Amino acid sequence: MKTTAALLALCTAAEPSAAFMTAPRTSAASSSLKQSKDNYEFQRALLETQFAISGAVTVEDHIEEQEQSSTPSIDATAFQNFLDEQEQPSAPIDTTAIQNSILRVAASTDRGQYASAAQKESVASLVETLESNKPKQTDTFSSSATLPSYLAGTWELAYSTNQLFRSSPFFLAGRSTCKTQAEVDQYNWFCEMHRAALAISTIGVVRQVISRDGKLTNEFEVKVGAVPFVTDFLPFVKYSGGLPLTVDGAIVSTADATPMSMENKDDWQLYMDTVEIKGSNIPILRNLLDGDNSKLKSRDLSKLLEDNVDAYEVPRPVLRTSYVDDALRIVRDEDDNIFIYSRVSDSEEVTDYSNVMADLGVASLLEGFNDAVSKIYL
Asked: Which of 96, 109, 155, 269 is deepest in the core (most CB within 10 A)?
C-alpha cells in the first residue's frame, strides 16, 4: 500500500494542471507539454497495473477511497456506548403500585363520583402508564368462542370519569344516536340532570358479566329511601329524618358484544338488547316486574323506528379495552371516557335476584330490632 500511495502521489504531481493546459503555447511550450503528457500517461499506466495486482478497479476508485479514508473517523467506543444506551430497556413499571394508587382514589371518591380535578388528572396519567405497558394476554378459549377468556367473567366498576350509569349499554347506545356535537352536549346535560334528580338514591354495586358467547350483562343496583321524611306522613312526630326502609332493585341491561375484528377481540361493537328491573323489594310490583312483559325490548323498538323513520340508524356503540390483566380491566367509550373494572371472578353467570324479599325491608328491620332491643326468640 505504501508503494501504491507513492505511485499515486507521483501520478498526481505529474498530472498537468488546468492552467498549464489552457495557457498560450509556444514551440518550446508545446514540446514540454508533450513530454509532460507522455510522462503522465506512463505513470497512469504504471498505477493501473499496480491497482490490478492489488484488486482495485481504477485510479478514480482509489482516489475516492483515499478521500473517504481521510474523513475524520468516529470514536467507535463512544458510538457503541450510544447504541447501547438507546437499546437499553427501560426499567419495568410497578403495575401493582400503580393499580393500588388508582384504587385508593376510587375508594375515597366513591368510584370517581366525587373526585377533584387534580385526582382525575392523576388517575388519567396512571391509566395512560398502564395502557402503554399493556401485557400480552393469552386466550385459552377455543376459536368458536366470540370473546376471549381473559375478558370473560364477572367485573365490578371501580372507577369512572363519567356518571356510573353510563357504563350501561342502554346509555352507551343513547350516546351513539348523537350525530352532532350539539346533540352530544344535550345528551351529556340530560345525563347530568338525570343523576341530579336521583340524588336521593344510593348507587350500589355496578357489575358487568361477560360471557364467552358475546353476551354483555350490566347490573346496576340502587336503593332509595322508602319513607325519606316521616313528617310528611306523621306531622305530629318531631323527627326530621325518615324511616329505615328502602326501595331496592337492580336495573339490568343486556347487549351483544361483537369484536371489531378476529385479530382484535378487545374492541367491541355493542348491539343493545333488553332492559329490565330485577330484585325489586316492592310488594305486588315485584310480581309484575318479574314477568317477561315488563322487559324493554329495545330491538323491537329499533326495528319499528328503522321501518318508519328514514334517518334512523340502529345505534351500535363501541367499547375499547385499553388494558386488561388478571385483576383490572380498563375500558374507553367513543368519547374516551374511562371505566375501570376489577375482576370479581371467572363466573359467567348473571346475578340471581329471586331471593330478594318483596317487603321494603320490613322483615330485616324487625329482625334487627328484635336482635338489638326486644330479644324475643321462639
From this structure: 155
Whole-angstrom distance, CA of residue 322 vs CA of residue 325: 11
CA 216/CA 209 separation, integer angstroms: 6
Q: Which three cell numbers stand for residue 47?
A: 498505477
Contact in structure between 245 and 283 (CB atoms under 8 Å): no
360 Cβ contact partners less than 8 Å away, ≥ 6 residues apart: 226, 245, 246, 247, 281, 282, 283
What is the amino acid identity at position 164? L
> pLDDT-derived band of residue 30, with 50, 70 and 90 as boundaries?
low
- Which residues are CB-neighbours of 280 under 8 A, at least 6 positions away? 247, 248, 249, 286, 289, 356, 358
pLDDT computed for residue 376 by the predictor: 87
3-state secondary structure 295-336: CEEHHHHHHHHHHHCCCCCCCCCEEEEEEECCCEEEEECCCC
CA 74, CA 76: separation in Å to the nearest integer? 6
Count Cβ atoms within 10 A of the Cβ of residue 222 and give its class: 0-12 exposed, 13-18 middle, 19 or more buried.
buried
Which pLDDT score, from 0 to 100, does residue 39 have? 62
DSSP state of 240: -
- Other beta carbons within 10 Å of 41: 11
Helix (H, G, I), strand (E, B) or coil at 12: helix
Q: What is the pLDDT of residues 50-90, one digit of tens each?
A: 655 555 555 555 556 555 555 455 566 766 666 666 666 66
What's the whole-number average pLDDT of the chain? Answer: 82
Whole-number pLDDT of residue 231: 66
pLDDT at 105: 97
